[in-house]
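In response to reviewer comment 3 from the previous cycle, which asked for concrete evidence that the modeling workflow produces usable outputs, we include below a single protein chain processed end to end. The sequence was submitted unchanged, and the resulting structure tokens are shown without manual editing.
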Amino acid sequence: MMKIAEQGTKKSIVEVDMDDQSRKDIRRILKTFGIRADELLVAHLARNPALSKLRVKITLEDMTEYDDSPDVEPANLVIEDEIRR
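The workflow returned the following structure tokens.
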């Protein structure tokens, strides 16, 4: 049993029964995204040295088709921030 914060908050904690494969898949996807995003942002900043800051928005979109479960709300996460020089 794992305790996680739901919807990106630390106030709302839910217990989730998750197998090892699910956790490995989540970490693989996030690691791949992190590496690619880092490379892209570093290259973008190098090509644009006049930028004093870069505003970014990261979106996680659940693309699952929930036809059999119309009451399921797809997972969604949006993070907006800036990268300063």
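The chain has one helix and four strands. We consider this sufficient to address the reviewer's concern, and the full set will be provided in the supplementary archive.
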